[in-house]
Amino acid sequence: NISNVTALDILGDVEALSEERIDTVVNMFLKDFKEDLIETKGWPNYVTAYKISKTCLNAYTRILAKRFAQFRVNSVCPGFVKSDFNCNIGIFTVEEGAKHAVTIALLPEDGPSGCFYERAQLSAF
């Protein structure tokens, strides 16, 4: 969850969204991070870089969906999956997490594209 107004405006403008605009948000974040302005500028204050990277990945999903309209391009958060990354303290098994990604990958040809799913549920960016 990002409350940085400029970042929200840039990433929320779907029609004008571009790789350059995503880079602008990343560079704004990096500048604020280096200057210790994360909280002041409205960036997440917990697992900050991770959340920004996922937000930008979701924005990039929209770009790819538009660029490659003949394909279904979506992003999926599988949930808090047990993995080496989190010292295996996740809630879901790898199989449970993968199940939802496979479900989204197998959407019909006329299914949604440019969307974000939390597990198998359509979610807002």
TrEMBL record:
Protein name as it appears in the record: (+)-neomenthol dehydrogenase
Keyword presence, NADP: yes
Organism from which the protein derives: Papaver nudicaule (Iceland poppy)
Keywords from the named record: NADP, Oxidoreductase
Gene Ontology CC terms, in alphabetical order: membrane
Source taxon at top rank: Eukaryota
Alphabetized GO MF terms: oxidoreductase activity
Coiled coil regions in record: none
SUPFAM superfamilies registered for this protein in UniProt: NAD(P)-binding Rossmann-fold domains
Family: Belongs to the short-chain dehydrogenases/reductases (SDR) family.
